[in-house]
Amino acid sequence: MSIMAKVIERVLEKRHREYVDDAEKARKHMQERSLEEDEPYKIPKMIYHTKVESKDLFGCQIVTFNDNENSEYLVIYLHGGIYVNEIRLPHILFCDKLAKKINGSVFAPVYPLAPNHTYEESYEIVEKLYDYLLTMDKPVIIMGDSAGGGFSAAFCEYLATNDMPQPKNLILISPWVDVSMSGNYDEVEFDPMLGVDGLREMGKAWAGELDSKDYKISPLFGEVKKLPKTTLFVGTHEILYPDIVKFHDKLKDNCVDAELIVGKEMTHVYAVYPLMPEAKEALNHIVKTIKDYNK
Fold first, then answer.
1. Exposed/middle/buried for residue 97 (C-beta within 10 Å: 0-12, 13-18, 19+)
2. How far is residue 282 CA from its own chain's centroid?
3. The CATH number of the domain where 199 resides is what?
């Protein structure tokens, strides 16, 4: 575990534990977020590796990276944030680096969030974006982190249920695959960022009238046999670790080409954070996975 990884763990513990480990505080956080949720996202002013733009597509603000006709790959990136928090700088920096390394175009929807919205609007937006990218005759990759990782997996199960084509790759970074948080998490050594009760509360808001165990919310309980090549990343220092291992095992049991990369003593979505050597290794692995599989 690198020094930078330890520093990030300490920062996360101070910023997130309160409202993700307590249902009442989670409800208060959602009330506060509801006041700003529908404000347009402003791209941070930085020096980027690619052209980073904000576009209005299919009724949704979408941040695009390296969107040009010469790109070799098309990536839909669904950001994490417990289905409540907006896309953040680490996501932007990660997508920018990914687009550069694969010479691809990355599309990151600023999709509608709870508590003002439920899953339904976001599914409609992502489906329209996916259909649009399929017409370009290039490899399409769907990926996401945390809630966005769960959304990515659930969306691919939705595609399978509706006999729609799968993407070439599904890449999941610490995916939230059981939004109901129904598992046994006692075996997790330590998680500086996430808790059970707060997550469960925010997950209910995203699910709306659906049961939190419906596959469109919690892909752990869905049909997986038609999913594409799937690569999963998880750290042993995260509450979601047992559920992600279960999901990987389910993929393997259903003969899906699946790979699980476990970061020892790594925290939630470690692959996305800048400046960590472990994150650099993870990004390089993702790039290699995309390039090697889609030759």
1. buried
2. 15
3. 3.40.50.1820
pLDDT (tens digit, 9 = 90+) per residue, 201-239? 999 999 999 999 999 999 999 999 999 999 999 999 999
Helix segments in 22-146, DSSP class H: 23-34, 89-102, 119-134
Most distant CA atoms of the chain, gap in Å? 50
- How many structural domains is the chain composed of? 1
In the sheet that holds 104-109, the strands lie side by side as: 52-57, 60-65, 104-109, 73-78, 140-145, 169-173, 229-237, 258-267
Tokens of 251: 């993929």
Domain carrying residue 239: 3-293
Amino acid at 57: L
The CB density around residue 36, as the number of other CB atoms within 10 Å, is 9
- Identity (one letter) of the amino acid at 83? Y
Please tell me the distance from the alpha carbon of residue 12 to that of residue 238, in angstroms, as a whole number. 12
Residues 205 and 19: beta-carbon distance below 8 Å: no
What is this structure's pTM?
0.95
Show Cβ contacts of residue 235 under 8 Å, excluding neighbours closer than 6 positions: 174, 241, 262, 263, 264, 265, 266, 267, 268, 270
pLDDT tens string 58-94: 999 999 999 999 999 999 999 999 999 999 999 999 9
Instruction: Say whether the peptide bond before residue 192 is cis (omega within 30 degrees of 0).
Output: no
In 3D space, the residue among 167, 197, 162, 166 whose CA is nearest the CA of residue 182 turns out to be: 197
Give the C-alpha separation, 148 to 53, whole Å.
20
